[in-house]
Specification:
Largest sheet: 8 strands, mixed
Radius of gyration: 17 Å
Strand order of the largest sheet: 1-2-4-3-5-6-7-8
Mean pLDDT: 94
CATH topology: Rossmann fold
Number of helices: 11
Number of domains: 1
Length: about 260
């Protein structure tokens, strides 16, 4: 682990002000955050990577220290922001990766911006995202009613001992900030159609599909199906890893992605 200076930027992208951090030197690696979070989610990951790569993390629009004047979120829009960030920083075909929602965004970058990335990391996501099955599970898990409104009191109660303290820390603009992120994220999940076989066939960048074998949200079988559909992919399964463990226990996550990135 190497400690280096962190450079911060606030830049205008697609009508939003996006907060960015850069650390390290070498080939550029852009990491897209998971849902509900901010770039601070990767605080344990970046020091391991910054001795090899120039690591760029950013707060998704509306999250953390980034704004979202549009008031909406979609995977496609976050992918557009990611591509615009790459252009704004003058990055030459960086690696692009992420976990959970960030992994889906990485796939959207590959689909919407062919050749923009040197290789992709699709962690903690699968072809089930966008399915009616997952949407029903999300409605139950986050107490979403028929009008797509989240019961924020119940969500706060459910997450009180786990994610809620971190969400309050990651989103500094008061209680309404994290609540807005949760509602906008729910709208994004419920509106998403997922990726078709035809779309996956168009993602030609080398792609690492990464999943934990104890992931309670992403079945291994669905990650394997994504791996098999992608034209140029590798598959890694992290032993004993739940959905968020690779982020909060980063050593195994970093070893696997570093091995992949150094070969591409």
């Amino acid at each position: 682990m190497i400690s280096t200076t962190v450079e911060t930027h606030q830049i205008e992208i697609n009508g939003a002000s996006i907060y960015i951090e850069e650390q390290g030197q070498g080939d550029p690696l852009v990491l897209v955050q998971p849902g509900f979070c901010s770039s601070a989610t990767y605080a344990g990951v970046v020091p391991f990577l910054s001795g090899i790569f120039r690591v760029i993390t950013f707060d998704d629009r509306g999250h953390g220290r980034s704004t979202n004047p549009s008031g909406g979120l979609t995977y496609e829009l976050i992918a557009d922001d990611t591509a615009a960030l790459i252009d704004e920083l003058g990055l030459n075909r960086p690696f692009v990766g992420g976990w959970s929602d960030g992994g889906e965004v990485a796939l959207q970058v590959g689909l919407r911006y062919p050749g923009h990335a040197r290789a992709l990391i699709a962690g903690g996501t699968s072809l089930e995202l966008g399915s009616e099955k997952v949407k029903a599970e999300m409605r139950t898990l986050f107490h979403i009613d028929e009008d797509n409104i989240v019961d924020l009191e119940l969500v706060a109660k459910d997450l009180k001992e786990t994610m809620l303290p971190m969400m309050r820390q990651w989103h500094p603009n008061g209680e309404q900030h994290w609540q807005t992120v949760v509602q906008q994220s729910a709208n994004m999940w419920l509106a998403y159609s997922g990726l078709t076989r035809e779309q996956v066939d168009q993602i030609n960048e080398p792609t690492l599909v990464l999943v934990g074998d104890r992931d309670e949200l992403v079945p291994i079988e669905e990650a394997v199906r994504l791996f098999r559909w992608l034209p140029n992919a590798e598959l890694a399964i992290l032993p004993g890893a739940s959905h968020m463990r690779p982020i909060f226990d980063p050593a195994s996550f970093v070893r696997v992605i570093t091995d992949f990135l150094e070969r591409h």
